[in-house]
Amino acid sequence: MKDITLKEIATKLGISITTVSKALKNYPDVSEKTKKAVIELAHNLHYTPNSFAVNLRTKESKTIGLIIPEVVHHFFSNIINAIIDEAEKNGYLVIILQSNESIELEKKQVELLINKRVDGILISLSNGSNNDDHIQEIIRRNIPFVMFDKISKLSKCSKVIIDDQIAAFNAVQHLIDNGCKKIAHIRGPLNPQNSIDRFIGYKKALEKNNIPFDPKLVYPCENVTFEEGYHFAKQIINEHPDVDGIFTITDLVAVGVLSFLNDNEIKIPEKIAVIGFSNWFMSQVVTPKLSTIEQPSHEMGREAFNLLLEEINCHKEEKNFEPKQIVLETSVIARESSIKKQNIY
Amino acid sequence: MKDITLKEIATKLGISITTVSKALKNYPDVSEKTKKAVIELAHNLHYTPNSFAVNLRTKESKTIGLIIPEVVHHFFSNIINAIIDEAEKNGYLVIILQSNESIELEKKQVELLINKRVDGILISLSNGSNNDDHIQEIIRRNIPFVMFDKISKLSKCSKVIIDDQIAAFNAVQHLIDNGCKKIAHIRGPLNPQNSIDRFIGYKKALEKNNIPFDPKLVYPCENVTFEEGYHFAKQIINEHPDVDGIFTITDLVAVGVLSFLNDNEIKIPEKIAVIGFSNWFMSQVVTPKLSTIEQPSHEMGREAFNLLLEEINCHKEEKNFEPKQIVLETSVIARESSIKKQNIY
């Protein structure tokens, strides 16, 4: 169907295009009678303002871009949920792109969003991100911009994060408090800041409790999957049969660990205690129920959007905007996989 | 940072705007020397074409809209994944909106996308959808449009679905083949077509096997949650202690059922066999592993996007487009929650 233009409405009513335009905007210098006629005809013809023309005039697209590593991921899907709900409340639409943990794709996507002239960009970096030219380009162009969860520490922009070092420290301290003396860590890949920080938190907790750090007890995931958790649990049992606790980079990996231990009838937590990270939904429904770190995904999405909106509004009012960093609280969720019997009674 | 215009490039080089524009488009009537100078300067000034102006000229936004009931949902997040990957390969961006199962929100979102002049719309209907004025409006405007998974049967548009009746029939037949004689059904809400069809499939399987249908054994979910599964399992055990099989509308509900049965040490599948629907990831990691129906979410997303693209291209070429319906195959995934011992040996 052809779109209706102001010109067609004007022709049909025998008035000027300017009058039609003014009538639709409720200008005082158009008579009520004319306004009524224009509005009725516009309605009957299903007239909608051409959004491209509106965009060209206001220089606003009322659209923001969101780049995340993965959509099929409990933590990120919760963040998407919060961002699109918050954006909608504020009249913004969200274009979502997933980098699939590829830096090349992430760079291309940033370029796409810049060319699309979105009003702002939200990013959680891919694991592959080891240079940040594309991030610098967003900042150089002064496009409203917020990084969340997986960030690069040095970039000068707003950030919403948790303190991964403290959260990981608390996870490992929880295992120690439950009697673990030899704790393995299934870590994330080497690049991402959150993977590095969780590893540092693990080391700091050992140090604080005078447990010697043994690099052989650290197993790095490449893709952070269930299968890697299963595989590394097997390797840990074979190589270090006296390990009595495992701290993993995320719940998905921890569930892989539980699965291997269950399949081999190794008692959890009596023989090995396990703690994950992120409090995925499935952690409450696996057997035994998985202890983990609560990471406030919904709050993270909401705060990230609101920081972006604050910057967008500052730009509109031509005010200066100083990037902000918000650090959200985490907590240990203690469940069956780590609470040893002697601590229950 | 201010955006660079063609005019600024023209002024700096002392040539006309037309020449700059032609140089950037590699027109043959501009000298190589001028082209080189324009391209270099455009690159150095970080010139990007104004996408709003490009949109206004081409009448294409290269953006499509996707409305789904929920983002935090294993099945839908897999579909989103497939759609944005497929869209990106074909040069399209995807605006994602979630209706949160609200018909009011869904109607508003359709209007937003129409006003945004997206090149096409993909929808999986909310459970609340009991009238389809907004759907008719998309069709009336001749906007390329595909419904998937949760559809309205009467709308004249392309559709990608599974045969929910056959899939549900097979799930219940599987329970009967494993010795179940009295099977309860925790169904979805009353409106959505897929919920109705799964219920019909359940009834047909009973009928085929000469098991009398008892409406008291059917429990309707309002929100299709884990908690409802837990709650209805309790109710079933209290009201009908001789029920020996449960078929649920989706895996999330089935996992709630398993959780209640486990907490109360009711043996699965010896006392009660359970089968879900959709093959969520967690179904493989709960105890016992959950039997379910494999529903091809990735394929559904891909097919839905490609049907939409076909329609978009037909419109561009001003060809007629006849709506198509694609029905994808499903299969029973038999796991521990339904395979009774006598059938294993």
TrEMBL record, chains A, B:
A Gene Ontology molecular function term of the record: DNA-binding transcription factor activity
Gene3D superfamilies: 3.40.50.2300, lambda repressor-like DNA-binding domains (1.10.260.40)
Domain (HTH lacI-type) ranges: 4-58
Transmembrane residue ranges: none
The protein's name: LacI family transcriptional regulator
Pfam families noted in UniProt: LacI, Peripla_BP_1
UniProt cross-references to SUPFAM superfamilies, sorted A to Z: lambda repressor-like DNA-binding domains (SSF47413), Periplasmic binding protein-like I (SSF53822)
Organism of this sequence: Flavobacterium glycines
